Structures are given as structure tokens and as C-alpha cells.
Amino acid sequence: MKSKLNQIREEAFSLLNDESCNIEEVRIKYLGKKGELTSVLRMMGQLSPEERPVMGQLANEVRAQIEEKIASLSEIKKAKELEKALNDEKIDVTAYGREQKLGKLHPLTQVQRKMEDIFIGMGFSIAEGPEVEYDYYNFQALNIPENHPARDTQDTFYITDNILLRSQTSPVQARVMEKTQPPIRIISPGRVYRSDEVDGSHSPLFHQLEGLVVDKGITMGNLRGMLETFAKTMFGEKTRIRFRPHHFPFTEPSAEVDVSCFVCGGKGCRLCKGEGWIEILGAGMVHPNVLRTCGIDPEVYSGFAFGMGIERITMCQYGIDDMRLLYENNIKFLKQF
Ligand code: PHE
Description:
Radius of gyration: 42 Å
Bound molecules: phenylalanine
Shape: rod-shaped
CATH topology of the largest domain: BirA Bifunctional Protein, domain 2
Structural class: alpha+beta
Strand order of the largest sheet: 1-4-5-9-8-7-6
Strand content: 15-25%
CATH class of the largest domain: Alpha Beta
Order of helices and strands: HHHHHEEHHEHEEHEEEHEHH
């Protein structure tokens, strides 16, 4: 039995000394419930009473030695694994980083957001309306009856006789007034459609931003002051604005509004085509017929409205001379903004 125990110790040690050994397997093979050391101990009963304690002691010694060896090997193995992990995950803080390419907003969206911010700063909130619109809101409620010539200049796409793709954001005016009594102070940005051929300055789909203010005692002076604040914030502190008389069926009086050219300051250059001024929007006092149609008493309330093209302002701001560039999604072009 003594030699059996010594043999177990030698075998176990020689297995454990092999680097590639599986420590857990060795433990089970020798120390496990059905292990070799255990089966030797089972035979203790056959020994004489004198031999028993001697063998018992030897067996305990062998067990302790193997256990100790296993414990120290496990420690070493763990330390090696840790070292390997630390090495593998080492970060070279001096290495060049891999560039993360950030996407950004389309220039039209950037300009639209900037416009929204300016108006929100002046107390406006944003109202939305459908792009597929009733003829009623796009035209009739805006004082444009059937057969009115204004319908030709805003020829759009018809879904049915009385449903169309809105040709302007002005129908949102009517929708808001119909639902809300003054005070009203909203802007409404969004897509509009007209049946135009695509060229450098036309597209069947483009964007407008509408504005509407209705309250007691609103005047053209309020419109002018508000547009001037907008223009200075949008195009620069030195910007001036001017009103030219115009006609829109839903405003009276109506005006086209120009800003002084923000490239040449008014002297005349390529951007303003020598004019010194750039037309940016249409505006006017809301027509009493429109107020009345939408359930607001024109004897009590007055209001102003304005509408501007977001493409036009974007093109002016960035010096883009062909509108098609805004829709082609050419990454090289878009990266510049
Ligand atoms: N809806 C007009 C257009 O598309 C612009 C406008 C809006 C004019 C509001 C006056 C008041 O041309």
C-alpha cells in the first residue's frame, strides 16, 4: 500500500508538471470521490491495527501534497491568464484614432431649423398641416375661388377634383384659424408642390415657411418690425428690408419683401444680380374675407401673414446657383455644409 501511495504521488506530480495538463482532470483522477487515492483509502480496513495509522498518515500527506501542488498551479495559471488579458487589451494611447464619420443635417434642414429657432425666440409656435390637402384650404378659404387666375400661377397636382398636393403652406393658416381664436402666433414649415419642370430654379417639390399672427390691433408696423428682426438674425445685423407693393388674394395690403444683399451690403454683386436687394418672401395683412371664412371677426381682430421659400434662402446663404444640387444627394456636395 505504501508503494501504491508513493506511485500515486509520483504519477500525479508528473502529470501536473506537464504544462499542458488539465489540472481539474488530474484532481478528479486522484482526489475525486472515485479517484485513485480514495480507492486506496478504502482498502485501509484490510490493514493491521499497527499499520493503519502509519498508512493513514502517509495517505493524508500524499493528499495534502497533491492538493497543495494543484492550488499553487491554479494560482500560477490564473496569474498567467490575467497577464495575457492585460497584454491583449493593452491600449496604445499614443496611436492615431480611427476617424468616426459624423453625418449631418441637409442644408435645407439646417436653414429650416435656424429659421424655426428665430421665430420660436419671438414667441411663435410650430403648426403643421397635411401635404395632401383639400382644394378648400389651399384655395377657397384663402379667398381664391374657382376660376381665380391665382390658381394658374400655383398649378399643382390633383388627386381628385377637390383633393390636391398643397401648392403653398398658406392652407395651414386657414386650418389654425378655424380651430383657434386669437391670439395666434404660429409658423408652419413644410413641403409644397407645383407642377413645374425641373430646372436650376424650379422643382415640383420645394419647401416654404409660413407665418401667421392674429390678435387685436395687429398692424403692418408689427409685420415690418418682426420681419426686420428675423432678417437681421438670419442674415446679419446690418441687413435692411424693404416692402414692394404686390398682390396676394389672401392678404390686403400685400407686399413682396426684399433684404439688402448680405454679400455686397447693397452695392450690387453677382448674388443680387446688381440689384443690391434680394427678394425673400411674400407677406401682408390677412384679408378680412379669410378671417371671416375661418370664424374670426375682422371687426375685432386683425393679423398679418408671410410665406417664404426655404430653398431660395438656403441658396442665397450658401451661394448655391442651381436648385437641383439640393435634391441630388451628392455626398461631395452635401459635405460642404
Ligand atoms: N403663399 C404665398 C406664396 O406661396 C406666400 C404668402 C404667404 C404671401 C403669406 C402672403 C402671405 O407665394
